[in-house]
Amino acid sequence: MENSVKYLSILRVQHVNTNGAISFDETLSTFTPSAFPLSGNKKIVSPYWCDIDTRKGGVVWYYETNDRDVLFKATDDIQKTFPEQKNFRAAWVFVATWDNVAFYKASSIGQRKRNTFQCILITNGRHSFAIFLYNKIQWTTGQASGGNTDTGLGGTPAQVGFDAGDGHNYMAIRESRTPAVLQVTHLSNVRIPGKFVYRTDTETVKDGGCTTHTGGRLAIFPRYVTMFGGTVLSIGGPCVETNDKISIMFRNKPDVIMCTIFSFNAVRCITPMMYETGDVNVTLTVLHRHNTSVFTGLCTFVNPASVKPNLYRIKPDQWKIGENVTLKWGKLPFEADTIAIELLTLTKVNNSLQLHRDTYVARKLPLLKTHVFRLLSSSGQAAVLRIHPEPEDLNQDTSLLASGWSDVFVMLPPDGKFFYSACYDWDDREKKHHSLEDNKIDTCSMYYAAG
Prior knowledge:
Protein name: NIDO domain-containing protein
Number of helices: 4
Low-confidence stretches: 1-11, 422-426, 433-451
Number of strands: 28
Helix content: under 10%
Strand order of the largest sheet: 4-5-6-7-10-11
InterPro entries: Epithelial_Barrier/Signaling (IPR051495), F54D1_6-like_Ig-like (IPR057018), Ig_E-set (IPR014756), NIDO_dom (IPR003886)
Shape: elongated
Domain NIDO: 47-203
Structural class: mainly beta
Strand content: 35-45%
Largest sheet: 6 strands, antiparallel
């Protein structure tokens, strides 16, 4: 919903209305839901806009919070629903609950019919989301909206959706203002009955949940990954179930890589080493019982120099063979009790650089923040350090483990003679190519050059 970041993080919620809607500029006094878009530039979020009367029973309560546990739960919800929001961290949550509420002019029989539902607004100050939860829905319409006083049905039923107030950006579920809205506890856009999740800071409200069935491509995050591999991709699109087998393939790589299920619409896959840069076609295969579905997407492999390293070499100018050196790291792209650190060297094979494991500089290391080790000589002159979880099997192929990387660096000899000799050799070769002398340069005009 356009400008909804401003609604949620700057203006915040201004009005929680008894009639099942949250408004931002003014109260919403109308109890009979009108079709979106509304007139008068009204900005509202309506989990269940209907004719509620708390004098007949029930209560409406709400609060905003930045409680750590609540933020953690909200973050987890958003990350599992929107795979591209892998780095999202909730900073503010607003919760409004219509608890066991009755409808307007309910008779003594009608007062037994109650609704309980909730709206949760979540933002990190940049991206914003809304969650609608429905615990119990037993009526759709109050008497003023044409509903029956005994059943709370008929007339103009409740509406579920959003209106940005600009006449263009709005959304309502198709059951809105129809008798079918009574079944909202059995409906969902995230395969959990009674739960709807939306992203509201985009130009149009975006559904959570599975998207590939509408013809869209895979949502892959991050889009740009290092060609060294070991990046954890969060991939959304197809709906998956616990026992499904998920695999991924990258262009020009015959290897089939198995993925893990993160949520009903998100899987996690590890990128392989790719000795090329640029856009790479990705093929995701879902084996569900005996049925196979194939989905495609795009991932861009980039030069490692374009990616922020996870490992930092302290005082890199002092990293010389034979010296004790210090390696430091912050947040790593994996969780582990113990880690391993490899030294890999770059060698040229068929005119392309390839990585080869040279040695381990640490095994079964506790997950501390720094490590000091002696830099030993290697088989190559350029090297890179890789950190990953300690494998259970010491002989396990570690190339498809989630990994963090250092920058690429030159293995400096202790006395620097390698560099001196390289410079002298370059100078000797340069002297064999005579430069033009000034008096031998004959200029000419563009006219003669073109002629």
